[in-house]
């Protein structure tokens, strides 16, 4: 018999993920505060849930959440989830939220008899639709194994990062590194051009030398060398500045609570705050034109 899933949060990411669970043969019940979002999920084969608390959850195998922030996930886990949900139902939270909340919600649910994993994603809306997301999973090994079939229906790669909260830790540490490497790549293109190298020449050299990185070869901030990069379409995202700022905020918060020292992460957050003021709707590689226009200062 098909596994039965309740999917909560049918926004930019959740809509594609929910549709991929349906495509993979799961029986999916879909809920969002937006009725339009529920109607769109129903058009792709899900069943509408009108009210979360009173929904009959006695036949559920799993609940997947894809929500904006920790407070929304806490609201669903602690207040709104179906009262009748049977013990043993697997809780999979795919939202990007703070490590502490993820750890507390995951451990709390598990203690109440609901195995729980945090499973944030790498990859944007295109990957959510195509079913090619990467999942970083925190939770007990046996709960990771339970979650795998659901995650494999929505993504291409699934990694176990350790106990509850470690999926979020992997996600924000990775994205802090991405922010720093993107800013460094932008500074290098800016300097090289000021010194008389054109972007393609610098790319050909640096991408074959020790400056090579994902920010350079997959997402080059200078227009030209990497045709699919947002720099070739006026820096339209891609991965928008506010999303990077959200992840950096989570990283700096986690650095504070864990006593970690992240000076470059902190400076990256400051630069993305400036980018959000000037170019809030653009891709996070917009740092390069901001440097070229003299919009960012060194301190
Ligand atoms: P979104 O704002 O498009 O969607 C969130 C959905 O949750 C909305 O439809 C909203 O109505 C619904 N919602 C909010 N509170 C609710 C509640 N209490 N009950 C039911 N539904 C509720 O956000 P998104 O872009 O889909 O992102 C979701 C998560 O994925 C975020 O944590 C984000 O950081 C993460 N993420 C996004 C991307 C991306 O490219 N968009 C990439 C990686 C990770």
Features:
299 residues, alpha/beta, Rossmann fold, N-(1-d-carboxylethyl)-l-norvaline Dehydrogenase, domain 2, six-stranded parallel β-sheet, three-stranded mixed β-sheet, 12 helices, elongated, binds nicotinamide-adenine-dinucleotide
Please specify the SSE layout and strand pairing.
Layout: E1 4-8, H1 14-23, E2 27-31, H2 35-43, E3 47-48, E4 62-65, H3 70-80, E5 90-93, H4 99-111, E6 116-118, E7 121-122, H5 125-130, E8 133-138, H6 141-154, E9 155-162, H7 166-194, H8 199-206, H9 214-217, H10 241-258, H11 263-279, H12 287-292
Parallel strand pairs: 1-2, 1-4, 2-3, 4-5, 5-6, 8-9
Antiparallel strand pairs: 7-8
Helix pairs in contact: 3-4, 7-10, 7-11, 10-11
The protein binds nicotinamide-adenine-dinucleotide.
Pathway: Amino-acid degradation
Protein name: 3-hydroxyisobutyrate dehydrogenase
Active site: 171
């Amino acid at each position: 018999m098909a596994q039965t899933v309740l999917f909560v949060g049918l926004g930019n990411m959740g809509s594609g993920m929910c549709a991929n669970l349906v495509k993979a043969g799961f029986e999916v019940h879909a809920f969002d505060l937006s009725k339009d979002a529920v109607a769109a999920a129903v058009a792709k084969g899900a069943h509408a849930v009108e009210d979360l608390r009173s929904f009959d959850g006695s036949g559920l195998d799993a609940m997947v959440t894809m929500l904006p922030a920790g407070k929304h996930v806490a609201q669903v886990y602690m207040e709104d989830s179906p009262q009748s949900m049977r013990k043993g139902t697997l809780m999979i939270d795919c939202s990007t939220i703070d490590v502490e909340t993820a750890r507390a919600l995951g451990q709390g649910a598990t203690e109440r008899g609901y195995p729980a994993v945090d499973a944030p994603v790498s990859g944007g809306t295109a990957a959510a639709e195509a079913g090619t997301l990467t999942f970083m999973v925190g939770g007990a090994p046996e709960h990771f194994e339970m979650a795998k079939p659901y995650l494999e229906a929505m993504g291409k790669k699934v990694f176990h990062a350790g106990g509850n909260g470690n999926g979020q830790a992997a996600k924000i540490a990775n994205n802090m590194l991405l922010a720093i490497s993107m800013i460094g790549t932008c500074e290098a293109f800016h300097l090289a051009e000021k010194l008389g190298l054109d972007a393609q020449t610098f790319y050909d050299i640096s991408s074959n030398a020790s400056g090579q990185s994902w920010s350079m070869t997959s997402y080059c901030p200078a227009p030209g060398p990497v045709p699919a990069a947002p720099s070739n379409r006026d820096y339209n995202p891609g991965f928008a500045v506010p999303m990077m700022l959200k992840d950096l905020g989570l990283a700096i918060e986690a650095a504070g609570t864990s006593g970690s020292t992240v000076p470059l992460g902190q400076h990256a957050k400051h630069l993305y705050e400036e980018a959000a003021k000037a170019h809030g709707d653009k891709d996070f590689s917009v740092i390069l034109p901001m440097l070229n226009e003299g919009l960012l200062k060194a301190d």
